């Protein structure tokens, strides 16, 4: 397979992934794994896990793992193609929906859908926080305390969110957690 | 409402301001960008009220794609049209993409570095706390709407505690919350 074909395959696979990623990139992580390891054989199981860990360590949206995936497949060109493929389809969709949404802001159906989505969203975000907190803490009470403490600081103050992140990172580095 | 309303609020951002705000959010977003986005948009800049943030995030959560990327599109479009949407997404992605590639290069040269795993555990725990705090603040913005708060609690228990798959929960519960809202709005 020549480079052009490979980039095209990459773009196709990633943009499909993008369009089914309702609930964010983590919702399609198993599918990304299936595509990269089983279907296209772009990398080994271990390499996929490594790339996931590196993406977790970097700041930014967690879909940047796709940038690494693309880089693994065909270098810098692959990284650019994969990143655009994960961003463009859903961003265009979000743009169209958001314009439609503004145009119909007085419509009853629009108000009902908007009002109905909010409680589901808030519940999902709270659930995500719990699931991640339990996975991270894994019966380590100090890590659980960091999570609870951070949440309390965020609720009670308007402190910069980087402060608890930096403190927790420093505590972790120092071996206190 | 997802539309601008000029009464008693800071001036609307221009494209440069959008770009640099999303850039700043993205490089600070360890363990989740959304809490940083709320802090920037609602608490620091005052571009959105807490209710407007809830509405924007709800829309983004229900669309496919990265929620914060969708948020960049929606907020960018709201203030500066398509140019705003484009610069906001670029602002959100450019730095993390470069950083992650640099990290991958370092990793393949040096392998795991001592202390990194431990640091990341601390950061991840705090990141979960940021998300939890944000969820609480989003619930505060729904004050008095007891039915909606109850529905949020049901979703939280179903997905967070009983681990009902996300799509199942959304498909079953959102028609109910939307039907309830339909009877109340006009």
**Assembly state:** heterodimer
Percent range of helical residues of chain A: over 70%
Helix content of chain B: over 70%
Q: Could you give a short account of the major beta sheet of chain A?
A: none
What's the mean pLDDT score of chain A?
Answer: 91
Mean pLDDT of chain B: 91
Distance between the termini of chain B: 14 Å
What gyration radius of chain B follows from the Cα positions, in whole Å? 19 Å
- Which structural class fits the helix and strand makeup of chain B? mainly alpha
* Low-pLDDT sequence parts of chain B: none
Strand content of chain B: under 5%
Number of helices of chain A: 7
Strand percentage of chain A lies at: under 5%
Short key terms for the protein model shown above:
heterodimer, A: mainly alpha, flat, B: mainly alpha, 76% helix
What does this structure look like?
The complex is a heterodimer of chains A (177) and B (186). Chain A is 78% helix and 0% strand. With 177 residues, chain A is mainly alpha-helical. The longest helix of chain A is centred in the middle third of the chain and has 39 residues, at 65-103. The relative contact order of chain A is 0.08. With 186 residues, chain B is an all-alpha fold. Helices cover 76% and strands 0% of the residues of chain B. Chain B contains 7 helices and no strands. Chain B has helices at residues 15-28, 34-44, 50-62, 67-110, 116-140, 146-161, 166-184. Chain B is globular and about 60 Å long. Chain B starts with 14 loop residues before the first helix and ends with a helix. At the A-B interface, α3, α4, α5, α6 and α7 of A face α1, α2, α3, α4 and α5 of B.
